[in-house]
């Protein structure tokens, strides 16, 4: 079987040069709101830990939300950089 490397490379280049589809743009927007949600609930939980004496792990919950925020932020920026390179 003969493999045409230049044609495959050109095909890959054209695939990578496409702009994000409406669905991909919607996913990027959803990821932005997910980041905001993680950050908001992390802050909310810290405030609740200061205000209330309820036996609930507010600080542990805040920590988990901020961990999710920073993990998603890394993934979000990687995907955003990928789409910016395509333009």
TrEMBL record:
Metabolic or biological pathway, per its Swiss-Prot or TrEMBL entry: Phospholipid metabolism; phosphatidylethanolamine biosynthesis; phosphatidylethanolamine from ethanolamine: step 1/3
Keywords: Lipid biosynthesis, Lipid metabolism, Phospholipid biosynthesis, Phospholipid metabolism
Molecular-function annotations in GO: choline kinase activity; ethanolamine kinase activity
GO biological process: phosphatidylethanolamine biosynthetic process
Classification via InterPro entries: Kinase-like_dom_sf
Assigned EC number: 2.7.1.82
Catalytic class of the enzyme: transferase
Pfam families, alphabetized: Choline_kinase
GO cellular component labels: cytoplasm
PANTHER family noted in UniProt: CHOLINE/ETHANOALAMINE KINASE, RE24176P
Similarity remark: Belongs to the choline/ethanolamine kinase family.
Protein name: ethanolamine kinase
């Amino acid at each position: 079987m003969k493999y045409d490397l230049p044609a495959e490379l050109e095909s890959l280049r054209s695939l990578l040069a496409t702009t994000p589809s409406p669905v991909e743009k919607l996913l990027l927007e959803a990821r932005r709101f997910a980041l905001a949600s993680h950050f908001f609930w992390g802050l909310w939980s810290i405030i609740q830990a200061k205000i209330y004496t309820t036996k609930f792990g507010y600080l542990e919950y805040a920590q988990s939300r901020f961990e999710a925020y920073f993990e998603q932020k890394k993934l979000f920026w990687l995907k955003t950089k990928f789409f910016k390179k395509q333009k």
